[in-house]
Fold each of these.
Amino acid sequence: MAGSNPSTTGSDPSLFVRVSRVIERIRPAVQSDGGDLELVNVSDEGIVQIRFHGACVGCPSSAMTLRMGIERNLLEHVPETTRVEAVE
């Protein structure tokens, strides 16, 4: 994803994999607008860290994408997630 090596500080690698699968389903929509996103980390507490790339960086709509798109999908498909944060 976006040329990095994502990792998880959590003890459940399957949680990271399940979150990653949801992110991969969302990415094409973000990429169609000239941006991209990278899954950075999933903590034991279910906090998902995402890094925006391309047109998403500094875009006023990225906060809405984060909450209404990414977080909503993750909470629906991976109930162990608690929230999504954007990181730099």
Note: Residues 13-86 form a domain with the GMP Synthetase; Chain A, domain 3 fold (CATH 3.30.300.130).
Amino acid sequence: MESSASLEIAKHTLLLFGIVLGLGTFSGLLARLVRVPDVVVFLLAGMLIGPGVLDFVDIKADSAANQLILIFGSSYILFDGGASIKLRVLNEVWITVVVLATIGVLITAGITGLAAWYFLGLPVIVALLLGSVLASTDPATLVPVFKQVKIKERVAQAVMTESAFNDAMGAIITFTVLGVAMGAGEFSAGDALLDLLKQSLFGIAIGGVLGYLAAVFIAHEKYDFLAEFAPVVTLMAVIGAYMSADGLHSSGFMAVFVFGIMLGNVESLGFKRSRSESHQLEDFVMTTALIMRMFIFILLGTQVDFTLMNQYLWAGVAVVVVFMLVARPATVFLCALPDRRAKWSIKELLFMCWTRETGVIPGALAGMLVGMKAPGAQIIASVTFIAILMTILLQATTTKWLAKKLDLLEE
């Protein structure tokens, strides 16, 4: 009887995966026809087949299957983004990236928290908790957008790198504020800074070591015995980088991003790969990242709670408007404009102000708060979903248009 029940669950899960893949393929074709980033259509498709509308797919946010897809999918997309980063470009903009990913997250959290206190009438600490959840940008959303819309290198790579590095800061601030809100501790700037340094440095070190080893085994003149298994190496190393960093209580997402940077810059490390091997690996990574985008954003769409959103709709929209049009511009101009080395133009800064989509990482943080029964968790989850929908539907769809207007598209 047990084996029969297990078999039925397996069949049901397989059917759901088939639905997601089929719908994702159709949505990808539709996105290409209407010329919008595919994550937008994936999200809308997920909302259509979710419990709120057609009720074809209902995978709970706290289920093991959903968490597996979120962790591995986000990690692989982030690895793909890291592989597209060029070290020569990153060398030019690293100061801006570091300041945006640290001080910038604090600025965004503070301004958004103030808006939540004013519009939602939340206690100050709960409002700051909401601001902290929304403060980090989302690499799983931004990387696919910049893969499809060819923006000038240094702008695209600065925004993608910021999104990879600021998830650690966002999580640290969120759980620090949560400790104060639940009466479990007091805020300590010194402890928070040490925690950030630990998460960042360990993540960078793990990603760097694994990335270098992977480059040796697939591109070294003598030791490239895994060259023909390069696609499998990326799968193993992405999992290994994330789990190793997570086991050491550091940023798994930072580890996989740095791993991607190392593997994407094998020539800079002194290794060489044949053109056919490079194309084979690029095709595999591109296809795998596409499948991960389908699953992440279609499932994210199915989990939108329309009833919860309606309870705080207009106040939540007001908070997100301040978040998009006040908090982000203030963050960009305060953190990037002083960087004399990068010498950002006003057009580049304006573009960076608009590209800060919210997605998987804030959604996951909000879900964790609901599971922990944190103060105001339901309101935080509601506003987070409003932010996800507004930023993806408004900002992702207009990225190419704005880049063209600001003359930032690459020929």
Note: The chain has a mean pLDDT of 85.
Amino acid sequence: MSGFVFSEKPIEIVSGEGPYLYDDGGREYLDMGASYACVPLGHGHEAVDRAVREQLDELTFVQASYPVAARTALYDLLAETAPGDAENVWLCNSGAEANEAALKFARAATGRSKIVATMQGFHGRTMGALATTWKDKYKRPYEPLIGDVEFVPYNDPAAMADAVDEETAAVIVEPIQGEGGINPGTREFLQTARVETATSGAALVMDEVQTGLGRTGRLWASDRVDVVPDMLTAAKGLGNGLPIGATLCRDWVAEAHGSHGSTFSGGPVVSAAAGATVSTLLEAEPPTRAADIGAYLRDRLAELENARAVRGEGLMIGIEVGRGANGILRELALEHGLLALPAGRTVVRLLPPLTITREHADQAVAALAAVIDG
């Protein structure tokens, strides 16, 4: 028997170190996708691995109603780094779960049902988060989903203002769309979402599952447009490869959260990993490196003849190409030892570890030039 959900690639990965992965034949791959941004500190990071091993020596798991030091420390650390006063922390196992919780919390806190989301947005594959995800290909096999979801064009402030009303429980939005093609949100659009939700009594949910934790050059991408949300969701890189998500909430939302729960919420081992990851991100300043190396990499990529556009912030980069992205990705991996990601049919997505150097960036550009311009 074999797995049936994922289409497996013809590369068996056996180990990793820093920005590199190695297959069962010993071949080296520069990991410019970081498995969808899940290892911001690179593979086998010493501080994270040490925290996990030390926690395993003490306690593998206990349910979240019993306080443990690793979880409590993570609560405090995330509250300290939260935008504004979104200091109440719910821990879960993934970005989809973090967004699912945010939608439930918004409905409980407002007593309303309407959710406003964006065209080309992606918020996860659980039934509630899926209903706020744009593409039909993700939704059609599972319909009917939850109702009362209205989609507005991304970066259209007028449409956002028209959609948010007294029946709206929440607006959920990515500060930079990931799956939708690496589309940065404008200051006007995201601030309109903030003003309209505050005026109507709805909650603003900023989905930072992919953009958060320093990837865009700031700890949270919403900081670049001076927007403080009512809830912020994080996951992917939070545990540097271990499965953990978080929903950060302001008091008015947290006080009316309902009866939400999860068996594995904030397990000691993943909490230890996340604590080490966030501490390292704050102490070693990888967000500053992401801003600097990201700007350098985007400038180099803009020199490619057949790159129709280069978009993004920090080390969240999309390259618009003139032919199918999946074919390009296969050639990059098999012929040039470079791992990247798609963002739709015609966008190559780069989400590398925040620890890469200019030399790694140059290696990536050389491979991309050979395939895209070759």
Note: The longest strand covers residues 307-313.
